[in-house]
Amino acid sequence: MIRIATRSSAQARTQAEVVANAITAASGEATELVFVETLGDIKRDVPLHQLGGQGVFVKEVQQAVLQGLADVAIHSAKDLPSMATDGLTVAAWCERRDVRDALVGNTLEGLAQGATVATGSVRRRAQLLTVRPDLQFVDLRGNINTRLEKIPAGGAIVMAIAALEVLGLTHHVAQALDPNVFVPMIGQGCVAVECRTDDAVTQGHVSVVDHATTRRCVEIERAFLAELGAGCSMPVGAHLDANDVLHMFMATGDTPNDRHAKRALPLPVSGDALEFARENARAVRASLQ
Length: 289
Hints:
31% of the residues lie in helices and 22% in strands. It contains 9 helices and 13 strands. The longest helix is centred in the N-terminal third of the chain and has 18 residues, at 10-27.
Protein backbone atom coordinates (compact mmCIF):
# COMPACT_ATOMS: atom_id res chain seq x y z
CA MET A 1 0.00 0.00 0.00
CA ILE A 2 1.36 3.40 -1.04
CA ARG A 3 -0.07 6.25 1.03
CA ILE A 4 -0.35 9.53 -0.86
CA ALA A 5 -0.54 12.79 1.09
CA THR A 6 -2.46 15.61 -0.54
CA ARG A 7 -4.60 18.60 0.25
CA SER A 8 -8.32 17.85 0.19
CA SER A 9 -9.45 20.45 -2.36
CA ALA A 10 -11.12 19.09 -5.49
CA GLN A 11 -8.15 20.07 -7.63
CA ALA A 12 -5.54 18.56 -5.30
CA ARG A 13 -7.56 15.39 -4.79
CA THR A 14 -8.05 14.91 -8.54
CA GLN A 15 -4.34 15.46 -9.20
CA ALA A 16 -3.48 12.88 -6.54
CA GLU A 17 -5.97 10.38 -7.95
CA VAL A 18 -4.35 10.64 -11.40
CA VAL A 19 -0.96 9.81 -9.88
CA ALA A 20 -2.43 7.03 -7.72
CA ASN A 21 -4.16 5.38 -10.68
CA ALA A 22 -0.98 5.52 -12.78
CA ILE A 23 1.07 3.90 -10.00
CA THR A 24 -1.48 1.12 -9.52
CA ALA A 25 -1.75 0.49 -13.27
CA ALA A 26 2.02 0.21 -13.66
CA SER A 27 2.95 -1.69 -10.50
CA GLY A 28 -0.20 -3.28 -9.16
CA GLU A 29 0.40 -1.54 -5.83
CA ALA A 30 -2.73 -0.37 -4.02
CA THR A 31 -2.84 3.30 -3.01
CA GLU A 32 -4.58 5.34 -0.33
CA LEU A 33 -5.05 9.11 -0.16
CA VAL A 34 -4.10 10.84 3.10
CA PHE A 35 -5.72 14.27 3.34
CA VAL A 36 -3.75 17.09 4.97
CA GLU A 37 -4.81 20.62 5.85
CA THR A 38 -2.15 23.26 5.17
CA LEU A 39 -1.64 26.78 6.49
CA GLY A 40 -2.92 28.13 3.18
CA ASP A 41 -6.12 26.12 3.60
CA ILE A 42 -6.69 27.24 7.19
CA LYS A 43 -6.11 30.97 6.64
CA ARG A 44 -8.18 31.51 3.54
CA ASP A 45 -8.97 35.11 4.43
CA VAL A 46 -5.30 36.16 4.44
CA PRO A 47 -3.58 37.20 1.17
CA LEU A 48 -0.98 34.63 0.13
CA HIS A 49 1.91 37.10 0.11
CA GLN A 50 1.17 37.88 3.77
CA LEU A 51 1.42 34.20 4.75
CA GLY A 52 5.10 34.01 3.93
CA GLY A 53 5.28 33.18 0.23
CA GLN A 54 5.95 29.76 -1.21
CA GLY A 55 5.39 26.71 0.92
CA VAL A 56 2.07 27.67 2.51
CA PHE A 57 0.33 24.87 0.60
CA VAL A 58 3.05 22.22 0.91
CA LYS A 59 4.81 22.17 4.30
CA GLU A 60 2.20 20.14 6.16
CA VAL A 61 1.90 17.71 3.24
CA GLN A 62 5.65 17.22 3.31
CA GLN A 63 5.60 16.68 7.07
CA ALA A 64 3.10 13.85 6.65
CA VAL A 65 5.72 12.00 4.61
CA LEU A 66 8.66 12.89 6.82
CA GLN A 67 6.73 11.72 9.89
CA GLY A 68 5.85 8.41 8.29
CA LEU A 69 2.13 9.11 7.97
CA ALA A 70 2.37 8.85 4.18
CA ASP A 71 4.85 7.64 1.56
CA VAL A 72 4.30 10.24 -1.14
CA ALA A 73 3.47 13.96 -1.19
CA ILE A 74 1.61 15.53 -4.10
CA HIS A 75 1.86 19.26 -4.87
CA SER A 76 1.15 21.73 -7.61
CA ALA A 77 4.75 22.37 -8.66
CA LYS A 78 4.27 26.15 -8.62
CA ASP A 79 3.62 25.94 -4.86
CA LEU A 80 6.84 24.04 -4.12
CA PRO A 81 9.68 26.11 -2.60
CA SER A 82 12.71 26.47 -4.84
CA MET A 83 15.03 24.98 -2.22
CA ALA A 84 14.86 21.22 -1.60
CA THR A 85 13.46 20.01 1.72
CA ASP A 86 15.83 17.89 3.80
CA GLY A 87 14.85 14.23 3.68
CA LEU A 88 12.67 14.57 0.57
CA THR A 89 13.33 14.26 -3.14
CA VAL A 90 11.14 15.05 -6.12
CA ALA A 91 10.75 11.59 -7.64
CA ALA A 92 8.51 12.78 -10.48
CA TRP A 93 7.51 15.90 -12.35
CA CYS A 94 4.24 14.92 -14.03
CA GLU A 95 3.57 15.87 -17.64
CA ARG A 96 2.66 19.51 -17.80
CA ARG A 97 -0.83 20.73 -18.57
CA ASP A 98 -1.55 24.10 -20.22
CA VAL A 99 0.94 26.53 -18.71
CA ARG A 100 -1.03 29.73 -19.42
CA ASP A 101 -2.98 32.07 -17.17
CA ALA A 102 -6.48 33.06 -18.27
CA LEU A 103 -9.04 35.76 -17.66
CA VAL A 104 -12.46 34.55 -16.59
CA GLY A 105 -15.49 36.83 -16.85
CA ASN A 106 -14.06 39.23 -19.43
CA THR A 107 -11.29 39.67 -21.97
CA LEU A 108 -8.47 42.15 -21.51
CA GLU A 109 -9.84 44.28 -24.33
CA GLY A 110 -13.37 43.99 -22.95
CA LEU A 111 -12.44 45.38 -19.53
CA ALA A 112 -13.60 48.97 -19.18
CA GLN A 113 -11.22 51.73 -18.05
CA GLY A 114 -10.55 51.23 -14.33
CA ALA A 115 -12.24 47.82 -14.21
CA THR A 116 -11.61 45.50 -11.27
CA VAL A 117 -9.64 42.27 -11.57
CA ALA A 118 -9.53 39.75 -8.74
CA THR A 119 -6.35 37.76 -8.12
CA GLY A 120 -4.25 36.77 -5.13
CA SER A 121 -1.05 36.73 -7.20
CA VAL A 122 1.32 39.70 -7.10
CA ARG A 123 2.93 38.35 -10.30
CA ARG A 124 -0.37 38.46 -12.18
CA ARG A 125 -1.12 41.95 -10.91
CA ALA A 126 2.30 43.26 -11.90
CA GLN A 127 2.12 41.78 -15.40
CA LEU A 128 -1.40 42.98 -16.10
CA LEU A 129 -0.38 46.48 -15.02
CA THR A 130 2.37 46.53 -17.66
CA VAL A 131 -0.32 46.54 -20.35
CA ARG A 132 -3.31 48.00 -18.43
CA PRO A 133 -2.07 50.41 -15.74
CA ASP A 134 -5.65 51.62 -15.25
CA LEU A 135 -6.90 48.35 -13.76
CA GLN A 136 -7.92 48.03 -10.10
CA PHE A 137 -7.28 44.86 -8.10
CA VAL A 138 -8.87 42.98 -5.22
CA ASP A 139 -7.59 39.85 -3.52
CA LEU A 140 -8.95 36.43 -4.46
CA ARG A 141 -8.75 33.28 -2.33
CA GLY A 142 -10.68 30.02 -2.02
CA ASN A 143 -11.13 26.84 -4.01
CA ILE A 144 -11.77 26.97 -7.74
CA ASN A 145 -15.56 26.95 -7.60
CA THR A 146 -15.52 29.63 -4.90
CA ARG A 147 -13.27 31.82 -7.01
CA LEU A 148 -15.49 31.39 -10.05
CA GLU A 149 -18.33 32.88 -8.00
CA LYS A 150 -16.29 36.00 -7.15
CA ILE A 151 -16.00 37.66 -10.56
CA PRO A 152 -16.28 41.43 -9.94
CA ALA A 153 -19.14 43.21 -11.72
CA GLY A 154 -17.85 44.23 -15.14
CA GLY A 155 -14.44 42.79 -14.26
CA ALA A 156 -12.58 39.49 -14.33
CA ILE A 157 -10.62 37.01 -12.29
CA VAL A 158 -7.29 35.45 -13.25
CA MET A 159 -6.77 31.69 -13.02
CA ALA A 160 -4.31 29.07 -14.24
CA ILE A 161 -5.80 27.17 -17.16
CA ALA A 162 -4.26 23.97 -15.77
CA ALA A 163 -6.36 24.27 -12.61
CA LEU A 164 -9.51 24.57 -14.70
CA GLU A 165 -8.41 21.65 -16.89
CA VAL A 166 -8.10 19.33 -13.89
CA LEU A 167 -11.78 19.82 -13.07
CA GLY A 168 -13.09 20.12 -16.63
CA LEU A 169 -13.94 23.81 -16.26
CA THR A 170 -12.06 25.37 -19.17
CA HIS A 171 -15.35 26.54 -20.72
CA HIS A 172 -15.16 29.42 -18.23
CA VAL A 173 -12.07 30.88 -19.94
CA ALA A 174 -12.79 34.24 -21.58
CA GLN A 175 -9.21 34.79 -22.77
CA ALA A 176 -6.05 32.71 -22.54
CA LEU A 177 -3.11 35.02 -21.89
CA ASP A 178 -0.01 34.75 -24.08
CA PRO A 179 2.73 33.20 -21.88
CA ASN A 180 5.36 35.18 -23.76
CA VAL A 181 3.73 38.38 -22.51
CA PHE A 182 2.22 37.19 -19.23
CA VAL A 183 5.02 34.93 -18.04
CA PRO A 184 3.64 32.04 -15.92
CA MET A 185 4.72 31.09 -12.45
CA ILE A 186 7.67 28.71 -12.21
CA GLY A 187 6.39 25.14 -12.56
CA GLN A 188 2.85 26.20 -13.47
CA GLY A 189 0.77 23.37 -14.94
CA CYS A 190 2.93 20.61 -13.46
CA VAL A 191 2.32 18.28 -10.52
CA ALA A 192 5.32 17.42 -8.32
CA VAL A 193 5.61 14.09 -6.48
CA GLU A 194 7.93 13.90 -3.47
CA CYS A 195 9.16 10.82 -1.59
CA ARG A 196 11.56 10.27 1.29
CA THR A 197 15.12 10.39 0.01
CA ASP A 198 15.92 6.99 1.52
CA ASP A 199 12.78 5.28 0.14
CA ALA A 200 14.09 3.80 -3.11
CA VAL A 201 11.18 1.39 -3.46
CA THR A 202 8.52 4.11 -3.49
CA GLN A 203 10.68 6.27 -5.76
CA GLY A 204 10.73 3.37 -8.21
CA HIS A 205 6.93 3.12 -8.19
CA VAL A 206 6.53 6.89 -8.62
CA SER A 207 8.99 7.06 -11.53
CA VAL A 208 6.25 5.85 -13.90
CA VAL A 209 4.67 9.34 -13.83
CA ASP A 210 7.93 11.26 -14.31
CA HIS A 211 7.93 13.17 -17.62
CA ALA A 212 11.44 13.87 -18.88
CA THR A 213 10.62 16.96 -20.94
CA THR A 214 8.63 18.52 -18.11
CA ARG A 215 11.37 17.69 -15.59
CA ARG A 216 13.96 19.50 -17.70
CA CYS A 217 11.79 22.59 -18.17
CA VAL A 218 10.70 22.88 -14.55
CA GLU A 219 14.20 22.34 -13.15
CA ILE A 220 15.57 25.12 -15.36
CA GLU A 221 12.76 27.47 -14.30
CA ARG A 222 13.35 26.58 -10.65
CA ALA A 223 17.07 27.37 -11.02
CA PHE A 224 16.04 30.89 -12.04
CA LEU A 225 13.79 31.22 -8.97
CA ALA A 226 16.31 29.70 -6.58
CA GLU A 227 18.94 32.23 -7.61
CA LEU A 228 16.54 35.09 -6.91
CA GLY A 229 15.66 33.62 -3.55
CA ALA A 230 12.08 34.68 -4.27
CA GLY A 231 8.69 33.24 -3.42
CA CYS A 232 5.21 34.31 -4.43
CA SER A 233 5.61 37.43 -2.25
CA MET A 234 7.61 38.86 -5.19
CA PRO A 235 6.31 39.33 -8.73
CA VAL A 236 8.41 36.68 -10.50
CA GLY A 237 7.76 34.37 -13.43
CA ALA A 238 9.78 32.07 -15.68
CA HIS A 239 8.80 29.67 -18.43
CA LEU A 240 10.87 27.53 -20.79
CA ASP A 241 8.83 27.15 -23.97
CA ALA A 242 8.83 24.38 -26.59
CA ASN A 243 11.50 26.22 -28.59
CA ASP A 244 13.91 26.28 -25.64
CA VAL A 245 13.42 30.00 -25.12
CA LEU A 246 13.49 31.00 -21.46
CA HIS A 247 10.97 33.75 -20.70
CA MET A 248 11.68 35.68 -17.50
CA PHE A 249 9.86 38.35 -15.54
CA MET A 250 10.52 40.21 -12.32
CA ALA A 251 9.10 43.40 -10.81
CA THR A 252 9.86 45.48 -7.77
CA GLY A 253 6.19 45.42 -6.75
CA ASP A 254 2.65 45.18 -8.05
CA THR A 255 1.59 48.80 -8.54
CA PRO A 256 1.74 50.93 -11.72
CA ASN A 257 4.74 52.87 -10.40
CA ASP A 258 6.90 49.80 -9.78
CA ARG A 259 9.65 48.88 -12.20
CA HIS A 260 9.72 45.57 -14.03
CA ALA A 261 12.10 43.63 -16.26
CA LYS A 262 11.20 41.05 -18.87
CA ARG A 263 13.46 39.12 -21.21
CA ALA A 264 13.33 36.07 -23.46
CA LEU A 265 16.53 34.28 -24.42
CA PRO A 266 17.20 30.94 -26.13
CA LEU A 267 19.11 28.39 -24.10
CA PRO A 268 22.71 27.95 -25.28
CA VAL A 269 23.23 25.01 -27.63
CA SER A 270 25.95 23.76 -25.33
CA GLY A 271 26.75 24.50 -21.72
CA ASP A 272 24.93 24.31 -18.41
CA ALA A 273 21.27 25.30 -18.82
CA LEU A 274 20.80 25.60 -15.05
CA GLU A 275 23.70 28.02 -14.78
CA PHE A 276 22.31 29.96 -17.74
CA ALA A 277 19.05 30.38 -15.81
CA ARG A 278 20.94 31.46 -12.69
CA GLU A 279 23.05 33.97 -14.63
CA ASN A 280 19.95 35.55 -16.11
CA ALA A 281 18.27 35.69 -12.72
CA ARG A 282 21.20 37.73 -11.48
CA ALA A 283 21.03 39.98 -14.57
CA VAL A 284 17.29 40.56 -14.22
CA ARG A 285 17.66 41.38 -10.52
CA ALA A 286 20.57 43.76 -11.20
CA SER A 287 18.56 45.61 -13.85
CA LEU A 288 15.99 46.55 -11.21
CA GLN A 289 18.46 47.82 -8.61
